[in-house]
Write a structure and sequence with these properties.
heterodimer, A: 248 residues, mainly alpha, 80% helix, 0% strand, globular, B: 390 residues, alpha/beta, Rossmann fold, Alpha-Beta Plaits, 2 domains, six-stranded mixed β-sheet, four-stranded antiparallel β-sheet, 11 helices
């Protein structure tokens, strides 16, 4: 795993050396700023409510979660596979898992940077005389970053499947949407209350788990494990796909 | 250093390589030769740990490429044909990335990076963005990246493709230099590169080893026929000239190409350089020479022969001496495409050569009164023993 940090550094540099990360950050910050000011005016100046709505409570938050990670990760394997750089990486003395984890850490870091921009709004509100409730804001940023990690891992797994970045992004958006819509399966397959399938789907609900902890300013280890397991699953999937590519 | 046994790789029903057996000793420089699609890159990718083999085994520096892949990757420098480099990085950033991947200490990397860039002839472009480099410069950076961890084995896939003639010459001298410190497996379909750099050649065709050995042995064993071309003013009696030429020992069926201007053109097939004999005959007969050349078959002809006519032209063969121990066991003799390049260990002693007929211009050779226009018959000089493996 010694190569994880090396890959992480390279990927982070690669993201910021290309215009993609800058454009995404720029657009996302403009988007964030617009919606935050909209929410503040909607809640008639209640900054706390606006933050809660902004970090997980609104559809725009989940829309960004679904859209942005695929755009960040779409090139990470597909482009490298197309240009042949993947051959260099996969013949370097690092494991496939280290390659995936390094890339995941870089993409998640950019998403973390994006979400931490919310802190600027908090500081602005404080400077203007309305001190916000900091714990839900900080836990919300941490939670948003953790959720982003899951969707970045999905994006990586999809990117490892194809040599076309745009196709990777499109498929990853679909996969992310499907993941968020997983609890809706319950409505498609009617089950009696207390049925194991219903319980399993309830536990696998990412939105519910997010609101159970991070939205209320609580850092619960159960939610850390929950998001960690989901991310781990997709990291495992991406690693296996990379390994399977060698046989294609 | 590299041992390959029964290596096979299939893509679906198609076998890219099939039942390859070869080995490289430490410090050997071996050229992988073959037409496009012969399986060169596939073999190299397997050796580099990028592709798994369908069956068979490959050991690099004593480690199995499949089961001990990381150990193998630590010991090789691999340059794929596409020269994969991060276009957005500077050359030295790419070198630092490679140093970190190989776990090199900072102090070591700091001294080694400029040294390797210097060796690859790209040190003056160390701050350049890779995306802005020419193909030749990228190729040099690729070699520098492969060389950085000072690998025991260098696997270079088509390192000269896409280069202009000058860059190719420079690359050739660099490769020759690398061969002094590393075991090098180098692939190319550009024959002069292989001829210039690699003492030993492995020819692949349709996923199988068609030949393995030094250039000389390959040409000898594959029936490469040299010939002496003579253009001379032999006078009206061409039949006599033909008879005299035929009397030279070692000359095969002479081709009379007729007159070109006032000179007559002959081609004398022979296994060795008979220019001195022919020249002496011409001088003794007073033939005015316009051309007397020895034309040897090139690796290119051999390559064409293997690539185009293999099933018909090549003799059914035995495994190579170098691969005797790893000879495939389930294939029939007819399926084997290997060419016997080394003398059999238990081969019967050769029959003593008959006396040679020589035309000598030396008036003191055989007595000053000797008629120089008549051939002189001498016993062959004792043949020096052939080197094993030659």
């Amino acid at each position: 795993m010694s190569g994880v940090f090396t890959i992480y550094r390279r990927e982070l540099a690669g993201l910021f050396l290309s215009p993609l990360a800058w454009v995404l950050l720029c657009v996302a910050l403009a988007f964030n700023g617009f919606f935050f000011s909209l929410f503040v005016s909607l809640f008639q100046g209640d900054v706390g409510e606006a933050f809660a709505f902004f970090l997980g409570g609104s559809q725009t938050f989940w829309l960004m979660i679904v859209l942005l990670p695929p755009l960040l990760t779409m090139r990470m394997f597909s482009e490298e596979s197309r240009t042949g750089v993947l051959e260099f990486l996969l013949t370097a003395p690092v494991t496939d898992a280290a390659v995936v984890l390094g890339k995941l850490a870089a993409a998640t870091s950019v998403m973390g940077l994006l979400w931490s921009s919310v802190l600027i709004y908090g500081l602005s509100a404080q400077a203007l005389g309305t001190a916000p409730d900091w714990p839900p804001i900080v836990s919300g940023v941490i939670g948003a970053t953790l959720v982003s990690a899951i969707f970045c891992a999905v994006g990586l797994a999809v990117s490892a499947c194809t040599n076309t970045p745009l196709l990777a992004a499109f498929l990853a958006v679909l996969a992310n949407a499907a993941l968020l819509a997983l609890p809706l399966v319950e409505q498609l397959v009617p089950t009696p209350p207390g049925h194991w399938f219903k319980l399993a789907l309830g536990h696998a609900n990412i939105v519910t788990q997010f609101h159970a902890s991070f939205s209320s300013g609580v850092l619960d280890s159960r939610q850390f494990v929950f998001f960690g397991v989901w991310t781990g699953f997709f990291v495992f999937l991406a690693t296996r796909i990379l390994e399977a590519r060698r046989w294609w | 250093m590299i041992t390959v046994q029964g290596l096979t790789r299939r893509f679906g029903a198609r076998a890219a390589i099939e039942d390859l057996h070869f080995s490289l000793e430490r410090g050997e420089v071996v050229g992988f030769l073959g037409p496009n699609g012969a399986g060169k890159s596939t073999t190299m990718r397997i050796l580099a740990g990028y592709l798994p083999a369908t069956s068979g085994s490959a050991l690099v520096a004593g480690f199995d490429v499949l089961r001990q892949s990381l150990e193998v990757r630590r010991r090789i420098g691999y340059l794929p044909e596409s020269v994969p480099l991060y276009a957005e990085h500077r050359v030295e950033e790419m070198m630092w990335f490679q140093a970190r991947l190989h776990g090199m200490r900072r102090s070591e990397a700091r001294t080694r990076i400029p040294a390797v860039l210097e060796r690859a002839g790209i040190v003056d472009r160390s701050r350049a963005i890779i995306g802005g480099l020419s193909r030749g410069q990228r190729q040099r950076v690729g070699i520098a990246v492969a060389l950085l961890p000072n690998p025991e084995v260098l696997i270079l896939d088509e390192p000269t493709s896409g280069l202009d003639p000058l860059q190719r010459l420079e690359m050739r001298s660099l490769l020759a230099e690398l061969g002094r410190d590393h075991t090098v497996l180098l692939s190319s379909h550009i024959l002069p590169e292989i001829e210039a750099v690699c003492p030993r050649v492995i020819v692949l065709n349709r996923g199988k080893i068609a030949a393995d050995g030094t250039k000389e042995t390959l040409l000898g064993q594959l029936g490469g026929e040299s010939r002496v071309r003579l253009e001379a003013l032999v006078g009206p009696d061409v039949a006599l000239a033909l008879r005299l030429l035929k009397s030279i020992r070692g000359v095969g069926e002479i081709r009379d190409l007729g007159k070109q201007g006032i000179h007559h053109v002959f081609e004398l097939p022979c296994r060795e350089d008979l220019r001195e004999d022919v020249g002496a005959l011409a001088a003794s007969r007073g033939w005015a020479l316009r051309e007397l050349t020895w034309q040897r078959p090139s690796l290119e002809q051999l390559f064409a022969k293997i690539a185009l006519d293999m099933p018909h032209e090549l003799p059914a063969a035995q495994p190579l001496a170098s691969a005797l121990a790893q000879a495939p066991t389930g294939s029939t003799a007819g399926e084997k495409l290997l060419v016997q390049l080394s003398p059999q260990p238990n081969a019967a002693p050769s029959v003593p050569a008959p006396p040679r007929t020589l035309y000598s211009l030396n008036p003191f050779d055989g007595g000053a009164s000797r008629d120089l226009s008549k051939p002189k018959v001498v016993d062959p000089a004792p043949q020096p023993p052939r080197e094993p493996g030659a």
